[in-house]
Design brief:
The protein has one domain (2-16, 69-411): Alpha-Beta Barrel (TIM Barrel), CATH 3.20.20. It is 42% helix and 20% strand. It has 13 helices and 14 strands. The strands form three sheets. An eight-stranded parallel barrel has the order 5-6-7-10-11-12-13-14, surrounded by eight helices. A four-stranded antiparallel beta sheet has the order 1-2-3-4, with no helix packed on it. Helix 7 (192-202) packs across helix 8 and helix 9 (260-280) packs parallel to helix 10. The protein starts with a helix and ends in an 11-residue tail after the last helix. Bound molecules: 2-O-methyl-1,6-di-O-phosphono-D-mannitol. 2-O-methyl-1,6-di-O-phosphono-D-mannitol binds next to helix 12.
Length: 412
């Protein structure tokens, strides 16, 4: 683990007094930064920061307006956590499937759809040797964050020992949007403030909320886009108030026969609406991570875009819509094959990395887990082989973040 991440993990673990106005960060063993904040009555935050090295002290000062929901310490916590979520060319493993989704995947493989089977599967994942070399963040479900290994060790402790930052899915799922046939709205805002405070206390340092957008003849509607973007922004503001970094996940689904071009237009419109609403709700852009879909041809479209076309079009859409202040974009996989998801992310990083304002990372569920889940199939004797399959996909995606993935990695 780098000195920077070690410092963050220690800081997150410690019982930190959140009213303090002085802190030291962890640029390296020989350099650190100390910061002093002033927040005036109209919400103008002035930060005076000094980087201290063996060669002397380098001062920096900047001022910015922040919404009234931010304390000065929260602002710095959010920035640092968001940076850590996309640090080190590692990535995010989404293992936050709701019980119905997890059960549906288990049913296809004749795995019992029980709490114990879900626990055993999640134990397999978090105890994978070497997972922390490729994965620095996991997204958990409410059931999982409270669970333990069979010997009683809490999953949160196992993750912490592996240097992995835990977070939590907090939406309660997508339901039909009234008056809008074929469209969904994600729910979960009622009581969210209290739930977020509990998760922060438990050790979560970020949260995740997924909005689902379908492409059809007359879909998505303007009101469907606005409703989902508004809910994402309300969720994000509540997270930041609590000190949790929001992962903002607007997913344009692959289902349908739409072209790559249609997916591009819809994705850009979705992202424009999301950032309008995030700004309206005074969400700190530096303190969030975006989790979008890649721009893809619909699954039933006869003309399937090449890896290069997907990579180029996705980056172009993000350039047009995502402010440079956002520290990282971590893609969902959305049902792509595991190999294609790695190949497409790889081309984006290989071709564009040096010109992008944000890190391009992954936050895959199926594209990391599916081969491992199939290998396991609920059998204790398959755990080791399943962990190897999981680690293999995690390594491929770590390589893709660095622009170093090759198809030959799949045959080694
Ligand atoms: C799109 O789903 C998210 C990413 O997974 P993939 O890489 O497989 O597309 C995922 O984090 C999702 O939000 C969770 O699995 C929760 O989904 P459900 O549908 O169970 O709420």
């Amino acid at each position: 683990m780098t000195a920077k991440l070690t410092g963050l993990m220690n800081w997150l673990r410690s019982d930190r007094n959140l009213t303090t106005t002085h802190w030291a960060s962890w640029e390296s063993d020989s350099t650190y930064r100390r910061t002093n904040h002033d927040l005036d009555a109209i919400g103008e935050l002035t930060m005076r920061s000094e980087t201290v090295t063996h060669g002397g002290v380098i001062p920096h000062t900047f001022t910015r307006r922040v919404g009234p929901q931010f304390s000065e310490v929260n602002t710095q916590l959010l920035r640092d956590t968001a940076q850590a979520l996309v640090a080190d060319a590692k990535g995010v493993l989404a293992m936050d499937e709701s019980n119905p989704t997890c059960n549906k995947r288990f049913a296809k493989l004749n795995i019992p759809q029980t709490m114990e089977a879900r626990r055993a599967y999640r134990e397999l994942i978090v105890t994978t040797p070497g997972l922390g070399d490729c994965i620095c963040v996991v997204i958990l479900h409410d059931e999982t964050i409270r669970q333990q290994k069979v010997d009683g060790t809490p999953f949160l402790e196992i993750l912490s020992d592996a240097g992995i930052i835990p977070g939590i899915k907090v939406d309660t799922g997508a339901t039909d949007l009234a008056g809008h046939p074929g469209e969904k709205i994600t729910e979960g805002l009622d009581g969210l403030r209290g739930r977020l405070a509990e998760y922060f206390q438990m050790g979560a340092r970020f949260a995740k909320w997924r909005a689902v957008i379908s492409i059809g003849d007359a879909l998505p509607s303007r009101s469907g886009l606005e409703a989902n973007a508004h809910a994402l922004a309300r969720y994000a503001a509540l997270c930041q108030e609590t000190g949790l970094v929001p992962i903002v996940e607007p997913e344009v689904l692959m289902d349908g026969d739409h072209t790559l071009e249609r997916c591009r237009k819809v994705t850009e419109e979705v992202l424009r609406n999301v950032f309008i609403q995030l700004n309206c709700q005074r969400v700190l852009l530096e303190g969030l991570i975006l989790k979008p879909n890649m721009v893809l041809s619909g699954l039933k479209c006869p003309a399937q875009a090449s890896v290069d076309e997907v990579a180029n079009t996705t980056v172009k859409s993000l350039w047009r819509t995502v402010p440079a202040a956002v520290p990282g974009i971590a893609f969902l996989s959305g049902g792509q094959s595991a190999e294609l998801a790695s190949a497409r992310l790889n081309v984006m990083n290989h071709r564009f990395k040096s010109r992008l304002p944000w890190a391009l990372a992954f936050s895959f569920a199926r594209a990391i887990q599916q081969p491992a889940l199939e290998m396991w199939s609920g059998q204790v004797g398959n755990v080791k082989a399943a962990q190897q399959a999981l680690l293999h996909r995690a390594r491929c995606n770590r390589a893709a973040r660095r622009g170093e993935y090759t198809a030959s990695m799949e045959t080694k």
